[in-house]
Structures are given as structure tokens and as C-alpha cells.
Amino acid sequence: METVRVQSDPFDMGAELNAFAAAMAKKNAGAVVSFSGLTRDIATGDLDAMEIEHYPGMTEKALAEIRDEAIERFNLSDAMILHRHGRMGPGEPIMMVATAARHRADAFQGAEFLMDYLKSRAPFWKKEITAQGAEWVAARDEDEDALSRW
Questions:
Q1: 3 - beta bridge partners?
Q2: CA distances (Å), 119 to each of 14, 61, 112, in order?
Q3: Phi first, then psi: what are they for 95, rounded to 5°?
Q4: What is the maximal distance between C-alpha atoms in the chain?
Q5: Which major enzyme category is it (predicted)?
Q6: Residue 116: CB atoms within 10 Å
Q7: 3-state secondary structure of 57
Q8: How far is CA 14 from the centre of its chain?
């Protein structure tokens, strides 16, 4: 199972989580935590689509490094990061993280750490496309604040 994937194709959240959980049962994990994000309207106006850009190779390397850091910091059995790029419509799955650990607190903290990183530091660039035009999504102060707690 690939634990870091950046892809343009849609994914099945349930199938991804079931595969991850089955692999973690073999590692004697007692807790699996997941979070999935959906494309949503951030700009003013009705969202037609969101386009996400990234640098192939660099993005995967950065995600693998933060995944490895989460495993070490939170005593995780494993962690998975799945993120899409390209054009997505409203409500489509955009990303997913899953963590596993012997204890639930570690799994929850590891997932929160990964989410905070993805929201503020992961090398992705998002553009919202509406009937009014296209607009790049700016970083938000609250996302940076959330990352600072780690």
C-alpha cells in the first residue's frame, strides 16, 4: 500500500480507509483515525471548479517527510496521505489522511498534525473558478496559527 499519493483521479474514501485499516490490523494498531476533505466554495460566488497545482516529485517528497515526522512524533504504526491535483467540482473528495497507533490519542494527534501541515505548508496551489472568474486561494492566518501549536 502506498502511503503517500498525489493523483488527479478521484478516490473512494471508504475503500481507501478499509485498505489502510486492514493493513494496520496486521501491525497490531488499536486505533485508526481518518479525515477526508471535500472541495468547497471559499471565494464569494458559486464555485464551478477548483484547480490544484503542484510540482511533481517535490510535493511527494515533502508529504513523505511530514508523514515520517508524524510517525516518529506520535508513535504511529503508520500514516497515509492522499491528495488530488487538477480540476475538481464542488463536493468531490480532495484529500485524505489516515493514521494508526496502539492508542487513540496518538492516532488523533498524528492526524491533526498532518492536517495542520497540509492546510498551511504543503506545496499545493489552489485556484477557485466561479462564474465571476478565477481566483487563487490565499493562505489563512488561522491555518498558520493551528500549525504553530506543534
A1: none
A2: 22, 17, 11
A3: -160, 165
A4: 52
A5: transferase
A6: 19
A7: coil
A8: 15
Separation of first and last alpha carbons in the chain? 28
Please give the grid coordinates belonging to residue 133: 472568474
Instruction: Using DSSP, state whether 109 is helix, strand or coil.
Output: helix
Assign 32 to helix, strand or coil. Answer: strand
Q: What's this model's pTM, rounded to 2 decimal places?
A: 0.90
Is the CB of residue 45 less than 8 Å from the CB of residue 131? yes
Average pLDDT over residues 54-67: 96
Check residue 63 and give its pLDDT.
97
Give the full edge-to-edge strand order of the sheet including 86-88. Answer: 86-88, 47-54, 124-130, 133-136
Which residues, 6 or more positions from 112, have their beta carbon under 8 angstroms from its beta carbon? none
- What are the pLDDT digits (tens) for 89-147? 999 999 999 999 999 999 999 999 999 999 888 899 999 998 888 989 877 777 667 66
Q: Residue 55 has what pLDDT? A: 93
**d(Cα 26, Cα 22) in Å, to the nearest integer?**
7
The cell numbers describing 88, all together, are 475538481
